[in-house]
Design goal:
Elements: H1 2-17, E1 21-31, H2 36-40, E2 49-55, H3 58-68, E3 77-86, E4 89-98
Antiparallel strand pairs: 1-2, 1-3, 3-4
């Protein structure tokens, strides 16, 4: 009887630890003057956009949000900001990046 209880407890703990949460980031972009169409084309003209993925922790969600805030296509965007939610809870952090327009 004790072995069964112990095994059941271990299964319960391991399944709880493996639970991934829903990480949702909202990305807002500000295009350089005259480059609005080019800057928003990859997003079908939508601004802001929202992306989601399953992640294990709030910390992993925050790291994804921080990484996603970096402006990669320099010359078309002047500002980019990202807000982060984990399992519907706003984590209270906004990540931002700025770049010069060319």
């Amino acid at each position: 009887m004790k072995k069964t209880t112990l095994i059941a407890a271990l299964i319960l703990l391991s399944s709880a630890a493996a639970h991934a949460g829903d990480c949702t980031i909202t990305i807002s972009r500000k295009a350089c003057a005259g480059k609005e169409t080019e800057a928003m084309k990859p997003y079908n003209g939508k601004n802001p956009t929202e992306e989601s993925k399953k992640l294990d922790t709030e910390e992993a969600c925050m790291k994804w949000g921080e990484k996603s805030s970096k402006i990669i296509r320099k010359g078309t965007l002047t500002e980019k900001s990202v807000t982060v939610k984990f399992d519907g809870k706003d984590l209270g952090k906004t990540f931002a990046d700025k770049a010069e327009c060319k």
